[in-house]
Design brief:
With 321 residues, this protein is α/β, with parallel strands linked by helices. It contains eleven helices and ten strands.
Length: 321
């Protein structure tokens, strides 16, 4: 199983074919993942330093590369030009039947779900306090969190908890992104540039989390807070919730630094999207934020793994830096 000292050295690779640059091929050669364009090597990296590869757009990969990345514990995600995943090749510990048996018979769903919602709310309040220190002083933040805990602890069902979480997130977005003329969150609708950026950032976070869970042997379709739903990796949805703050914080920071330009976004058929050339800038913003917190995400998944394996209710809690 992958350990933290080894994981710290890992990196995520994003590969995009450039317009007019010829045919792109990804191959394996001399223990390296190698990118070719028109038969010439343009970049390469040791397979032992890679955790995940995101392939965006059209390119070819070899069967040898697929075999080697699975053996090395590297996941490959294939995304279209709008950064929507259409296929993946993931390394996973499918044979961990003891863990999966515990996962399938887990009986503390409501308490685990409450911990997820509390953790997410804690980090949302941390972001608000960082951005608006005068309004969210330490004492007022503590009071606000105590109020959240009171509401969450009073919930008697997962559906009731979903309603509480939705209300908290709606309030958070409205306050945190008010400088960016916030409208509302509508996943995959791409009604404005904000929703486009969130879709990209959250998708990166989701795939990163899913890869870690599968490496530990989890069935990521069997969720706890997010219940079973056809073709949805509900457990990955669960575990990413406390870390959404990483993407939210990266968006507002980029806005303050003047990195977000509305001219980068195109509009067609009622939806906004990024041009091919401009998209790299935003992918790098989210990837940098993710890598800054990769150790914490890894530690959270590892702690969750032992909680599930040992059937103990002392669940992990991530505090945003």
């Amino acid at each position: 199983m992958l350990q933290l000292p080894d994981f710290i050295q890992k990196q995520i690779i994003i590969v995009e074919p450039r317009v007019g640059s010829g045919i792109s091929d990804l191959k394996f050669k001399n223990e390296n993942v190698v990118l070719y364009r028109d038969g010439k090597i343009v970049n390469q990296v040791s397979i032992h330093k890679v955790f995940g590869i995101f392939l965006i757009g059209e390119m070819t990969i070899t069967s040898v590369l697929i075999k080697k990345v699975k053996k090395a514990g590297v996941s490959i995600f294939m995304l279209n030009s709008r950064y929507e995943e259409y296929a993946s090749i993931c390394s996973q510990a499918e044979g961990n039947y003891i863990l999966r048996n515990h996962q399938y018979h887990f009986s503390d769903e409501l308490n685990f779900a409450k911990n997820i919602v509390k953790n997410k709310a804690y980090n949302q309040l941390a972001l608000l306090q960082e951005e608006y220190p005068a309004k969210f002083k330490k004492q007022s933040r503590i009071s606000a969190y105590k109020e959240v805990i009171s509401k969450v602890d009073a919930a008697t069902s997962l559906n009731q908890l979903l309603g509480i979480e939705g209300s908290l997130s709606k309030s958070f977005f409205k306050q945190y992104f008010k400088e960016m003329k916030w409208y509302k969150r509508m996943p995959r609708s791409k009604i404005d540039s904000m929703n486009v950026l969130m879709d990209i950032g959250y998708n990166l976070l989701f795939n990163f989390t899913d890869s870690l869970l599968r490496l530990h042997g989890f069935d990521t379709y069997k969720g706890i807070y997010h219940q079973l739903f056809f073709q949805r990796k509900s457990l990955s949805c669960d575990i990413m919730e406390p870390f959404r703050c990483v993407i939210d914080g990266a968006i507002l920071k980029a806005f303050h630094l003047g990195q977000i330009d509305e001219k980068d976004f195109l509009f067609s058929k009622g939806q906004y999207f990024l041009s091919f050339e401009q998209s790299r800038k935003y992918m790098k913003i989210f990837l940098d934020a993710l890598m800054d917190n990769k150790e914490e995400i890894f530690a959270y998944v590892k702690e969750f793994y032992f909680c599930m394996l040992n059937q103990k209710g002392d669940y992990p809690f991530y505090k945003f830096k």
